[in-house]
Amino acid sequence: MSVVAQVVKKFINDPETVVPEALAGMAVAHAGLLRVDLENQLVLRADAPVQGKVGLVSGGGSGHEPLHGGLVGLGMLDAACAGAVFTSPVPDQMAAATRAVEGGAGVLHIVKNYTGDVLNFRMAAELAEDEGLQVESVVIDDDVAVQDSLYTAGRRGVGATVLAEKLAGARAEQGGSLAEVAGIAKKVNARTRSFGVALTSCATPASGTPIFDLGPDEIEVGVGIHGEPGRRREKLAPAGEIVGMMLDPILEDLKPASGSSVLAFVNGLGGTPLLELYLLFNEVSKQLGEQGVSIGRSLVGNYITSLEMAGASITLLTLDDELTALWDAPVKTAALRWGV
Amino acid sequence: MSVVAQVVKKFINDPETVVPEALAGMAVAHAGLLRVDLENQLVLRADAPVQGKVGLVSGGGSGHEPLHGGLVGLGMLDAACAGAVFTSPVPDQMAAATRAVEGGAGVLHIVKNYTGDVLNFRMAAELAEDEGLQVESVVIDDDVAVQDSLYTAGRRGVGATVLAEKLAGARAEQGGSLAEVAGIAKKVNARTRSFGVALTSCATPASGTPIFDLGPDEIEVGVGIHGEPGRRREKLAPAGEIVGMMLDPILEDLKPASGSSVLAFVNGLGGTPLLELYLLFNEVSKQLGEQGVSIGRSLVGNYITSLEMAGASITLLTLDDELTALWDAPVKTAALRWGV
Amino acid sequence: MDSMQVTRWMRECSAAIAEQKDYLTQLDAAIGDADHGSNMTRGFAAVETKLDQLDGGTPPGKVLVAAGQTLVSTVGGASGPLWGTALRRAGKALGDADEVDPAQLGEALDAAVAGVVELGAAQPGDKTMVDALQPAVDAYRAALDGGELADALAAATAAAEQGMRDTVPMLARKGRASYLGERSIGHQDPGATSAAIIMAALERALSDRP
Amino acid sequence: MDSMQVTRWMRECSAAIAEQKDYLTQLDAAIGDADHGSNMTRGFAAVETKLDQLDGGTPPGKVLVAAGQTLVSTVGGASGPLWGTALRRAGKALGDADEVDPAQLGEALDAAVAGVVELGAAQPGDKTMVDALQPAVDAYRAALDGGELADALAAATAAAEQGMRDTVPMLARKGRASYLGERSIGHQDPGATSAAIIMAALERALSDRP
Ligand SMILES: Nc1ncnc2c1ncn2[C@@H]1O[C@H](COP(=O)(O)OP(=O)(O)O)[C@@H](O)[C@H]1O
Ligand SMILES: Nc1ncnc2c1ncn2[C@@H]1O[C@H](COP(=O)(O)OP(=O)(O)O)[C@@H](O)[C@H]1O
Ligand SMILES: [Mg+2]
Ligand SMILES: [Mg+2]
Ligand SMILES: [Mg+2]
Ligand SMILES: [Mg+2]
């Protein structure tokens, strides 16, 4: 893959300080809802720690906004750790977040399945446990573009992360135990599959040039959220065909019973207009209908992004009454809010 | 301005059907909240017409999502008319919307100040009045990048549109009369100023190529929301300087008394990552602080966009107790939601 | 001008604008929002559909009113209401006469420009369609007194094209191009260009060779 | 190896990695996420700051533990925990001896690789740093029995560089590159490349000419 010479212009002052400056902006924009620990690069729920409630901690590299900081608040995360762009945070941050949200009922780490995130969160959990804190970890790996296997790094964690944070967060808000809250996160991961397609690459502030190079009629099929190339390259096709390329592997793996109801989540990777995301959602609903699968709940928008990458991912979660009720439960974060 | 040969890839089936397909997607994604009239390309509040409430109608070309359809719902718009991409809708659509939301208390048209929008809404108002409906129109023109004058088309309507729809919508929900609701929209427009900067152009589905051409180190200063070039071209600069270029003309025109409190709205034009928008917001809050202006309320995100254009606009509204209370009032739309 | 000729005018407009679609859009991309070509093409395609529904005998005035109404209902943007009003006003001026003489046509063209100015408030020199339409109508009337219809139509077309070219150095004061200020200078106005196309279509439609 | 030499090793690593920063990032852009160069540079810059705070007499083992801890706390990503663990394990293996003989250094290098494998579960051939580290450590020990330290270090560096080159045809099974499947073939692994840089730095640090 040749790295393109072309520059991607950005609103920044200094590549080294993008993340802390953005966190400082979040603190002002959402004062009252959030608190920001600039030293540890943490976004914290304003009233953390919530006594008697299981604390939810997630985090990862920056560049996926609103994930994770925009998902901190009542009914969702208690803390988000922000790493450098596309680089997992370090154990010290995660341990500090764990201490900050510990309310006496234990802390759940929601970890996207990337080697860096997994290893750093594992070390953080060891640090916290050495201090006598009770920590459970759930690893999210819903991306069917990656073959799962015991001998590889396994699937990536993508769209299911947003859903697990919402649903486990709702269970925690209801007073669920650490085991129960972790159980919901595992259940969501087990019932969710995702697939992503990119129309363009993206550029980190540090490098300033696109990570990969795509022709004017090419798309990357099976991409993650770090600007990495996908599984294969295809010719640009009508939206209906592209949605087919994404839904087929999801349905093959998820195997929802005909007549079952799903939460359908069309996620923008950052540079795709909402107009196109709704158009894609229309295709998803048509094609699911043909398969006898109905849409019980929906989410459309930019929630787990890859900087300015033009592209989208589709995520399907097979609903049951418990998950539907948890989805409808009140949530009050910068990016997801209802019922309060 | 030379038109670039480069293609912008999009998730579409057919340029001619992008808007109706996206509207169909919205209808599924937000069933219960919205109703869509595909024949007239209208997004309607599910429970429209609300008896005894002033109806709020807005609309314009598509490509600015979530404006206007994503701002339809309790406490905001009753109907949004969608035109072709970047082309004002026609009077027939606006008249149909007016009929559909008329609940006995009259209808307010919120019109962005573009010749096309103004002329089509004027003709629509005449049609509706011929049918005996009571219609008031408020024209929004907050863009200080354009010199205002009696002899020109005047300023463009940009960010203030979102604020006017929220605040006038809240007044209508409280039972305000047509005159009172229109009064709030006029008050918001009078107290709001905006300025936009683009890092890239954008491409309509019909043309597929960027509307203008920018060098790797150039930015367009003073752009609107239709991919049109700005007032002038500048070299790319650090975010702090760019925010200065935007805030200076706004403050010069708005002249907020030192010590006054504003609603600060940093809006993404579509292709700029949220990470950068928060970084810009941080600069806005720092620079306003230096001017003795405090931020009473905040909004950060993509609300009035220009397809996939990379860029941002800053909008300031000088608050008073009435407007602050209307901002905090419950709103339930696809894009803005709180308190319910 | 009779019903058949006015219908031919509208179809000539539709064909010529569809042919110039990309050119009109390119002009609009430079100082506007790159949609004038598709807007006008969409509108006149709808006008042709509308004409198919009218029966042959419909008087010229009624044909123009129907065409104008169709533009208003299908184009949107600035050009929809403006061109729609122009054709409607021209049609109203003709009433329901089955035959229109050159002088009446002149009054209809006058009414058309007056309608555009009334609605859009553009002055000559503002860099709009008015800068092609007004000179065209003036030239038509001037050539007509003493001259033939053919000469008047030729003068109108030539004046419209000259007016179109004259918009290049103008600084736009109306429409989207006005947002560019000084940067609008040096570009030809899209609407003035479609005005020239429409006047040329009129000349072709009324020329004896069908 | 004494305190001064181990410190020199770390500073040689920092300088060499900073110099190769863009190259490492470019390798990572092809099969990863374009951050390996900045990750490692950030980490070893912090290590240098840490070294400045340690007093001269700190035993080699303690220096490596401190360096490893610093990498864990400042790098993030996959390489932070992995390289951090490697240095910490090596340091722990050396205890607090002030002087380390070549055999002890070999055990420390063994412990480093073992730590990486234990944490990351990569097999030889998975296209990771292990494919440069394991052959380097094996070559060091083989060359040492009977041979001189200098020969062992030279053998280790050569083996690391060979192992680095050998990752090119491999299909990645661990780390981000594994997401590319077949498309990971034909690219050199960034982590194996920094491993070769770090082994070469060790040889330079322990060579008599300071
Ligand atoms: N106030 C006005 N009076 C007369 N003509 C105008 C006025 N405003 C705009 N126009 C004409 O409309 C043309 C643009 O039409 P079009 O691109 O279809 O609409 P929009 O500007 O809404 O995209 C301009 O080139 C200009 O000739
Ligand atoms: N499980 C693993 N075991 C050993 N080394 C690994 C493993 N996963 C990744 N690596 C190494 O880490 C390198 C990537 O490091 P880096 O780019 O800094 O982290 P990230 O992949 O999180 O962005 C790879 O080139 C590979 O050599
Ligand atoms: Mg990384
Ligand atoms: Mg337009
Ligand atoms: Mg236009
Ligand atoms: Mg990397």
Globally, the shape of chain C reads: globular
CA radius of gyration of chain A is 19 Å
The fraction of residues in strands of chain A falls at 15-25%
Cα-to-Cα separation, first versus last residue of chain A: 47 Å
Note the run of SSEs of chain C as H and E: HHHHHHHHH
Mass-distribution shape of chain A: globular
Greatest interface (CB-CB under 8 A), with counts per chain: A-B, 64 and 64 residues
List low-pLDDT spans of chain C.
Answer: none
Strand order of the largest sheet of chain A: 1-2-4-3-5-6
Indicate the mean pLDDT of chain C. 95
Description:
The complex is a heterotetramer, with 2 copies of chain A (340 residues) and 2 copies of chain C (210 residues). With 340 residues, chain A is α/β, with parallel strands linked by helices. Chain A has 8 helices and 14 strands. Chain A has a 6-stranded mixed beta sheet with strand order 1-2-4-3-5-6, sandwiched between helices. In chain A, 67% of the residues are buried. Chain C has 210 residues and is an all-alpha fold. Chain C contains 9 helices and no strands. Chain C has helices at residues 3-19, 21-31, 36-53, 60-74, 79-94, 102-120, 130-144, 149-166, 190-206. In chain C, helix 5 runs antiparallel to helix 6 (102-120). The two termini of chain C are 13 Å apart. Chains in contact: A-B, A-D, B-C. The interface between B and C is large, with 40 and 35 residues. The complex binds adenosine-5'-diphosphate (2 copies) and magnesium ion (4 copies). One adenosine-5'-diphosphate sits between chains C (28, 32-33, 35-36, 39, 77-79, 82, 116, 120-122, 128-130, 174-176, 189-192) and B (87-88, 115-116).
Name the descriptors.
heterotetramer, A: 340 residues, alpha/beta, 6-stranded mixed beta sheet, 14 strands, 31% helix, globular, C: 210 residues, mainly alpha, 9 helices, binds adenosine-5'-diphosphate, binds magnesium ion
Short description:
With 340 residues, chain A is of the alpha/beta class. Chain A is built from eight helices and 14 strands. Chain C is 70% helix and 0% strand.
